[in-house]
Amino acid sequence: PRCDTGDLARACELVVRLALSCVAAPPADGGVADLVRGALHRQPAP
To answer: Which of 6, 9, 23, 35 is deepest in the core (most CB within 10 A)?
Structure first.
């Protein structure tokens, strides 16, 4: 199945936001995994 342009844009935005968050305020040890899991958990299923 092809990705919708909107879905792709949302996924890219999520990646950029997570990356900027990790650079601006790095989480404690093991915190990156928790941050990513939390962000992915809040995303609606396709």
So the answer is: 35
* Rounded Cα distance, 44 and 28, in Å: 27
Q: How far is CA 2 from CA 8, 10, 18, in A?
A: 10, 15, 24
The residues spanned by each domain of the chain are: 5-41
Reported pTM: 0.61
Q: What are phi and psi of 36, to 5 degrees?
A: -65, -45
pLDDT range class, residue 37, cuts 50, 70, 90: confident
